[in-house]
């Protein structure tokens, strides 16, 4: 019998079982040897009893809100980086074909019929280093669903008829992706990688790569070879979640998945491509111009870095990105907004394998420009590198790390549980990336302050090694002289002016720039207010005058240290006309930006504005995790002081107009 390495959760975070800290999370490691289950409690230092090289399995209990929905997800450690050069899109194609019948259930559509009959949700996706399959089912159908699911990895049929059918499905998915600016940009980046790098491949696959460029028999043979080579138990992880006992779930897994074949072959070796030289290519460090599908104007800067997976306890890229996209006073975006050059900022590494993998990572900075910002592109870029100059000059900051660490600890401790299928999908991928003791916490928590890795991340934001893409719907594609071959994206590329780069290398921090101020809204006291003997079933009015009503109810059920505030500002103008309705929405966005600048919303968990057109209301929704609501007064005073100021002097007309213009573009 195949050796199986099983890791079994003792509990998931649910309202009645919050651990006081991440350190208190514990779960068991279970090994399966020759049919005998041996349970060993994992030690705090991560040591465990482990045997064999089979499927890893993570099982857990969800909260009652899951309504008896169970889920199972399996992730294979292979993706599009492993596609044969002559059959690009192979990994994606196999993801489809492997589900088309098995020896135990030979009918090609048996699984589809089972899904329809029993209200099952099924999904699969191919990333660049992982291929993941998942299903969600009513709890009483979990075992038969898992049995059918497992057979796809034990003895899939992969017949020639299925190959013909699924080839058309892959082609259809590719056509659906064609109008996506995200995928168009990603494929453009593929052409920037150095020659023969795995990132240069076309991951989607289509009729050209899977039909026109290859003989039918060759495709059939190579597909089976690819499956036999990569779909091995020792490269698979499995997560199962249901409201059943752990022993019962464990039995399900062993009964269903013990026969998955194992070949003990290693993954493809990409070590020669590891490091920052993945995109050392004359095509990367250039200024690109692309006409997007969406009506937007934005500039994106991208830097290549080495793989950062092993630094998950520090997450230096997230620390640096958090500072760059901070919206308070002294920030980059605050400066650009005051100039009316930019309204929104995004920064970081996307979660997909293409941006962050075992070979490299791509850190991006995206700025949504106004028309004036587009005209001042040179000044916008100078501001960016001036702020980066500030980061390099001051270096890593322990106080900021501690603040980020603390807010993430709080968020993790009181997080809302994901949907079952999303949870198991996330877990089985995490099992590839982190040691067993960090399956749950690895992607969320910051447990180690490593100033050297943070400093290196700052240094990697070099003017000489940046890629810049400018997107604008106003571009005339007839002026572009290059075409990306797969998505047919027309673009132009040119060297970044040397005088720009020289200026960026020498630029000093602007006097307007400084690091984020200390966040006074972070708390470490989660003491609950005493619960009254008689809690009303509905909110009770506790104050009112001719203009104001205040309603309140304490939550007696979940007893969490959170305060939900919803301010309803009634106005008769919300539905008076389409113009007033849109203006009201712009006012909400204006208030949001102003409060971000004051560090109000950035210090509150879940703070944001809403615009409810059905009820002629403006809403401000806040969630405070607070000891005794000590900051509630400050928050409300800041909100109402800005509303009062707007009544007296009105909003900044130029900024308001730019926000309105952005809403108009989004509507179109």
Descriptive overview:
The protein folds into three domains: 54-257, Cytochrome Bc1 Complex, Chain A, domain 1; 272-506, Cytochrome Bc1 Complex, Chain A, domain 1 (2-Layer Sandwich), CATH 3.30.830.10; 540-667. Strand 19 (608-612) and strand 20 (617-624) form a beta hairpin. An eight-stranded mixed beta sheet has the order 3-2-1-4-8-5-7-6, with helices on both faces. A seven-stranded mixed beta sheet has the order 11-12-10-13-9-15-14. Strands 18-20-19 form a three-stranded antiparallel beta sheet, with helices on one face. Helices cover 34% and strands 19% of the residues. The model is unreliable at 1-53, 60-66, 602-608, 613-619 and 664-668 (pLDDT under 50). The protein is an alpha+beta fold and 668 residues long. It has 19 helices and 20 strands. The N and C termini lie far apart (60 Å).
In CATH, what is the homologous superfamily of the largest domain? Metalloenzyme, LuxS/M16 peptidase-like
Secondary structural class: alpha+beta
Q: Can you list the strand order of the major beta sheet?
A: 3-2-1-4-8-5-7-6
- Low-pLDDT residue spans: 1-53, 60-66, 602-608, 613-619, 664-668
In brief:
The protein is α+β, with helices and mostly antiparallel strands. It has helices at residues 90-97, 110-117, 142-154, 160-177, 181-190, 207-212, 216-230, 246-257, 316-324, 332-338, 371-375, 377-394, 398-413, 420-433, 451-459, 498-506, 578-597, 632-649, 653-667; strands spanning 4-9, 27-33, 36-41, 56-60, 69-76, 121-126, 131-138, 236-241, 286-290, 297-306, 342-348, 360-369, 466-472, 482-483, 490-495, 540-544, 549-552, 563-570, 608-612, 617-624.
């Amino acid at each position: 019998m195949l050796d199986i390495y099983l890791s079994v959760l003792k509990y998931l975070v649910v309202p009645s079982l919050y651990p006081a800290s991440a350190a208190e999370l514990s779960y068991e490691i279970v090994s399966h040897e020759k049919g005998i289950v041996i349970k060993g409690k994992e030690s705090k230092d991560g040591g465990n009893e482990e045997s064999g090289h089979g499927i890893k399995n993570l099982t857990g209990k969800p909260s009652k809100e899951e309504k008896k929905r169970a889920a199972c997800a399996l992730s294979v450690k292979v993706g599009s980086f492993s596609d044969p050069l002559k059959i690009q899109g192979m990994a994606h194609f196999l993801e489809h074909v492997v589900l088309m019948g098995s020896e135990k259930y030979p009918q090609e559509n048996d699984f589809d019929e089972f899904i329809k009959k029993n209200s099952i949700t099924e999904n699969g996706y191919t990333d660049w280093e992982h291929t993941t399959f998942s299903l969600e089912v009513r709890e009483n159908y979990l075992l038969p669903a898992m049995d059918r699911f497992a057979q796809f990895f034990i003895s899939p049929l992969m017949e020639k008829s299925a190959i013909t059918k699924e080839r058309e499905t892959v082609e259809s998915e590719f056509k659906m992706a064609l109008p996506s600016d995200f995928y168009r940009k990603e494929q453009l980046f593929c052409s920037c990688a150095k020659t023969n790098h795995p990132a240069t491949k076309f991951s989607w696959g289509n009729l050209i790569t899977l039909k026109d460029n290859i003989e039918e028999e060759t495709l059939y043979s190579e597909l089976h070879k690819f499956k036999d080579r990569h779909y091995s138990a020792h490269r698979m992880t499995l997560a199962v979640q249901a409201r059943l006992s752990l022993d019962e779930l464990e039995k399900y897994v062993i009964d269903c998945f013990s026969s998955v074949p194992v070949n003990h072959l290693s993954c493809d070796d990409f070590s020669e491509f590891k490091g920052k030289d993945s995109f050392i290519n004359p095509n990367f460090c250039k200024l690109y111009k692309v006409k997007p599908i969406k009506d937007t104007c934005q500039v994106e800067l991208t830097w290549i870095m080495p793989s950062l997976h092993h630094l998950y306890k520090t997450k230096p890229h997230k620390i640096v990105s958090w500072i760059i996209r901070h919206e308070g006073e002294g920030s980059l975006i605050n400066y650009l907004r005051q100039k009316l050059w930019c309204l929104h900022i995004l920064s970081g590494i996307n979660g997909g394998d293409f941006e962050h993998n075992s070979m490299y990572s791509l850190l991006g900075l995206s700025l949504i420009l106004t028309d004036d910002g587009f005209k001042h592109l040179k000044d916008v870029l100078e501001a960016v590198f001036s702020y980066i100059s500030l980061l390099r000059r001051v270096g890593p900051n322990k106080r900021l790390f501690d603040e980020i660490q603390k807010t993430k600890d709080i968020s993790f401790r009181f997080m809302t549980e994901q949907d079952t299928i999303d949870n198991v999908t996330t877990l089985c991928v995490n099992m590839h990336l982190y040691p067993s003791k960090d399956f749950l916490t690895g992607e969320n928590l910051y447990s180690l302050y490593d100033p050297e890795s943070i400093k290196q991340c700052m240094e990697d934001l070099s003017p000489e090694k940046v890629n810049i893409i400018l997107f604008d719907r106003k571009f005339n594609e007839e002026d572009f002289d290059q075409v990306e071959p797969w998505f047919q994206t027309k673009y132009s590329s040119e060297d970044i002016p040397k005088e720009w780069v020289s200026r960026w290398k020498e630029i000093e921090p602007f006097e307007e720039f400084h690091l984020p101020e200390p966040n006074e809204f972070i708390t470490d006291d989660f003491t609950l207010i005493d619960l009254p003997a008689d809690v009303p079933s509905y909110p009770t009015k506790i104050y009112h005058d001719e203009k104001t009503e205040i309603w309140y109810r304490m939550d007696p059920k979940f007893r969490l240290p959170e305060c939900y505030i919803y301010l309803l500002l009634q106005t008769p103008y919300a539905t008076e006309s389409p113009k007033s309705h849109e203006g009201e929405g712009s006012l909400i966005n204006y208030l949001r930006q102003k409060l971000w600048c004051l560090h109000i919303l950035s210090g509150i968990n879940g703070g944001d504005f809403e615009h409810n057109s059905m009820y002629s209301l403006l809403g401000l929704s806040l969630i405070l995790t607070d000891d005794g609501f000590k900051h509630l007064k400050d928050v409300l005073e800041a909100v109402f002081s800005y509303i009062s100021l707007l009544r007296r002097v009105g909003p900044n007309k130029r900024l308001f107009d730019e926000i309105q213009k952005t809403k108009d573009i989004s509507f179109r």
